Amino acid sequence: MNPDWIINGRRYAEDDLAAIAAGIDGLQQAARILVRSPDPVLYYAVLAHSECKDAFLFALPHSMPASAVQDIVRSADVDLVIEGNADAPRVSKPETAGRTESAAPDRGGICIFTTGTTGGPKGVVHSWNTIAASSRHVPGVLGGAVWWLAYQMTSYAGLQVYFSARRSGGTLVALTNRDPAAVAGAIVSAGVTIISATPTYWRWLAQGWPSAIEKPALLRATLGGEVVTQETLDLVRETFRPQGITHIYASSEAGTAIVVSDGLAGFPKALAEEGRGGAAECKVEGGELFVRSTTQMARYWNGEELRDGWIPTGDLVEERDDRYFFCGRADGRINAGGAKVNPERVEEALERLPMIRVALVYAKASPIVGDLLAADVEWAGPAAFDAGQVRAGLTKMLAPHEIPPYIRVVDRIPMSENGKKVRV
Questions:
Q1: S-S: 49 plus which of 21, 206, 221, 401, CB 3.0-4.6 Å?
Q2: Which strand (E) or helix (H) includes residue 329?
Q3: Which residue range is the domain that position 293 belongs to?
């Protein structure tokens, strides 16, 4: 089976993308390539070419500022910069004068950039082998499946979907339009059978799915990229009725580390026992998850090396009933009146309330006590918004210092291109 792509409603075969790559001046000779484009057709043509030729590719989000692009070009010894779209690619060959010593390895591979949810993005270097490693574990029953791209195409998660579809002879479906009706129509029209997305994206898809469009017959639903709650797992199962449902813990640095298919939030404590071996090992120290994997990154593109192989993920977990549950990011905690609060924990409680679709919790500056908790919510009703009613509902789930004194209704919680809540 040969893989193909359906991009914005048009089908492309491997030969079509190879022809686009062949028409890019200088691409065949370039060893170090930088691509930044909003066009999936151009991006995938360059990506497939780079892997085939064992070139080194800098895959930049198209939203990255031009000044940051130029910094990478200068410091990474890039031969060719490709921007624009497949119909009219813009190609430039950087000047060699004044370049600094290259920070990327000489052999082929790819540098991707973290989404920077709570901080600035970092360049993460992978070999072609490690970036595509998880695709080798796609079950045979999923061969030839139709995969939906819900992640940013240049992200680690987006690349996992790409390689999984390609290596299993499947079809990758991408749509740049984020209108719920357009997304639902494209999923059904293409016959999508596998969707992998963040919990935020899954809630958006379930809640925005038009009643007039029949839901797809999914072979598998996968969640990752954010804290996965039982409520979200249940919502996906009840709304889309997939044959299988999994949630995955992975990161750009650590690769795919934890896969859970028992339908429950969190992961068994046994997975974090040191010395259990396997392609990925986990341990918990001071409430933080550490990962060591045979498919983790080589290094950061600026040359930072890993210490003894263990990657501090920055993700916090807590143990309950012989299971670990994710409770937020260490660098995302809010100091509210002297007490540390994980915003994800408060959001989970808010989203358990039937009148709230989605919630975003953040710090609101106070001249007296420092930061206070604030929450934006998408209100589902049926009654009119009542902040007191919301806080009363939270008292059954949260400590007093975790209940936001400021709650307001917004039309939409912003969602990033990678499907995550946009945190400020």
A1: 21
A2: strand 323-329
A3: 131-330
Backbone torsion region of residue 392, taken as left when φ is above 0, otherwise alpha when ψ lies between -120 and 50, otherwise beta: alpha
Cα distance between residue 97 and residue 315, in whole Å: 42
> What residue type is assigned to position 272 of the chain?
A
Q: How far apart are CA 251 and CA 353, in angstroms?
A: 30
**For the chain, how big is the Rg over CA atoms in Å?**
22
Domain edge (last residue) among 330, 358, 382: 330
Matching residue, tokens 């409680």: 349
Domain end among 300, 330, 360 = 330
Host H or E run for residue 109: strand 109-113
What is the per-residue burial (b if ≥16 Cβ within 10 Å, else e) of 8-36?
eeeebebeebeebbeebeebeebbbbbbb
Could you report the per-residue pLDDT of 264-299, keeping only the tens digit for each?
Answer: 999 999 999 866 667 789 999 999 999 998 889 988
Whole-angstrom CA distances from 263 to 182, 211, 222, 230 are 29, 26, 11, 8
Half-sphere exposure of 405 (CA within 13 A, CB side): 11
| CA separation, residue 32 to residues 24, 39, 67, 77, 297 (Å) | 14, 20, 19, 7, 18
Helix (H) or strand (E) holding 195: strand 194-197
pLDDT, tens digit, for every residue of 134-172? 888 898 899 999 999 999 999 999 999 999 999 999 999
In 10 A of CB 318, how many CB atoms?
15
- 295 and 160 within one domain: yes
pTM over 0.85: yes
Judged against a pLDDT cut of 60, whether residue 15 lies above it is answered with: yes
Peptide bond into 354 cis (omega under 30): no
User: ∠ CA(15), CA(21), CA(27), 5° rounding?
Assistant: 145
User: Is residue 79 included in any domain, yes or no?
Assistant: yes
Domains contained in the chain, number? 3
- Are the C-beta atoms of residues 246 and 233 closer than 8 Å to each other? no
